[in-house]
Amino acid sequence: MIKNNNKIFVTEPTLPPLTDYVKFLEKIWKNKWITNKGEFHKKFEKKICNFLRGNNCSLCANGTLALIIALKSLDIKGEVITTPFSFVATANAIHWAGGTPVFCDIENNTLNINPEKIESMITKKTTAILPVHVYGNPCDVKRIKEIAEKHDLKLIYDSAHAFKTMLNNESILQYGDISVMSFHATKVFNTIEGGAIFTKDKKLKNKIDFLCNFGFSDKETIIGPGINAKMNEIQAAYGLICLKIINEEIEKRKKIADFYRGKIKDINGIKIMNKIKGVTHSNPYFPILINKEKFGISRDELYESFKKKNIYTRKYFYPLISHFKPYRCLSSASSKNLKVAEKIANAVLCLPIYGNLSFDELNKIVDIIMENR
Ligand SMILES: *Cc1c(COP(=O)(O)O)cnc(C)c1O
Q: What are the tens digits of pLDDT across the range 291-319?
């Protein structure tokens, strides 16, 4: 079978079996209830919460709105310490909630926010920390919690990459005041567009639900200025079916990641992410770091040589968020403040990874790396 004119992209959406989905759609057509917390929304909210072992889940239309609402629900304004090594939505959400992102450098091994640098970024205006579990690897949650408590800061995790990330047999969603997930098409698990907010605080979940639905607490009462961030029945039904096949997808990704690891681990000038003790994740990405001096060619040259063979790798996360126009004027965006992040952003390349990737295709990808040595 010829796929996409033989093009290999960095990912492919995990699609639920169509015949099952059609059955659910027929039910929705019969119910004549297509959004506003219908039967499928309620069911999916419960199921995903149990599946991910989170607490008090609120579904959202997408991950960005989920982040904005999470920040709003805790009345976060002022300065929010975050990482420049993420998708731009992390900083955008802080801006839309009325705050200012403050960029903190990252760690060399996990590529997550460096807890040892967080305290030096705290000022009188700091109200919260918004770290990201980049590529599904957990942040140093213990250390970050200590810092947040010591300085009385709110802690919100952007867990967009951390679908089913477990730390010592505990869900990563158990950390922080709030943890936010994205179910966008490019993530391991998707509802086409979608997101979710998790919190241990039941009262906070109520507030989050109001904020997602214009601020309504009942048909005639508005408790505050909310927004419209509801997930609809078409998405929720899709999510319910996607959940049935997601463990199989995660298993396939594990095999692919192990294959890459085996082939790439001894190549001079390419670094892969070490497995972290006590951590399992869903392999949302397979990043490699290229050292031009040792490998022979640069990250950009390797990217181009993949492209010539119709393989579309991605430079996640290049450029850093701190280089984008809305943020580069911030004092924390200076390269001097972000030495590790700058170095990593110029070296990283994410290889294709998704369940349907064949071993023929994987060999083709690895061969291109070998040819360029
Ligand atoms: C995908 C992503 C988001 C945004 O999620 P959407 O559902 O696309 O709005 C936020 N943060 C990170 C780290 C992401 O990768």
A: 999 999 999 999 999 999 999 999 999 99
Q: Residue with the nearest Cα to atom 2 of ligand 1? A: 160
* Domain match, 224 and 347 both: no
- Residue 161: CB within 6 Å of ligand 1? yes
The response to whether residue 190 sits with its C-beta less than 6 Å from ligand 1 reads no
249 lines ligand 1 (CB under 6 A): no
Co-location of 284 and 178 in the same domain: no
- At residue 94's C-alpha, the angle toward residues 44 and 194, to 5°, is 20
In this predicted structure, what is the pLDDT of residue 6? 86
- 63 C-beta closer than 6 A to ligand 1: yes
The CB of 235 under 6 Å from ligand 1? The reply is no
Residue 267 sits in which domain range?
A: 246-371
- As given in the structure block, the two tokens for residue 252 are 């396939």
Of ligand 1's listed atoms, the one at least distance from the Cα of 195 is 7
Let me know whether 225 and 112 are in one domain.
Answer: yes
| Joined tokens for residue 347 | 């070296």
- The residues of the chain scoring below 70 in pLDDT are 1-4
Full 3-state SS string of 110-152: CCCECHHHHHHHCCCCEEEEECECHHHCCCCHHHHHHHHHHCC
Predicted pLDDT of residue 3: 56
Structural domain total, the chain: 2
Instruction: Say which CATH number the domain at 167 has.
Output: 3.40.640.10
Q: What is the pLDDT of residue 373?
A: 84
Q: How far is the CA of 108 from the centre of ligand 1 (A)?
A: 22
214 and 252 fall within a common domain: no
Within 8 A by CB and 6+ apart from 109, the residues are 274
Clarify whether residues 81 and 130 are in a common domain. yes
- The contacts of residue 37 (CB under 8 Å, 6+ apart) are 230
Q: What is the CATH number of the domain that holds 255?
A: 3.90.1150.10
CA 161 to ligand 1: nearest atom: 15
Q: Clarify whether residues 256 and 206 are in a common domain.
A: no
* HSE-CB of 247 using CA atoms within 13 angstroms: 4
CA distances to 14, 348, 372 from 309, rounded to whole Å, are 24, 19, 13
Question: Which pLDDT value is given to residue 4?
Answer: 58
Q: Are residues 185 and 315 in the same domain?
A: no
Distance from Cα 159 to the centre of ligand 1, integer Å: 9
Instruction: Record the pTM.
Output: 0.97
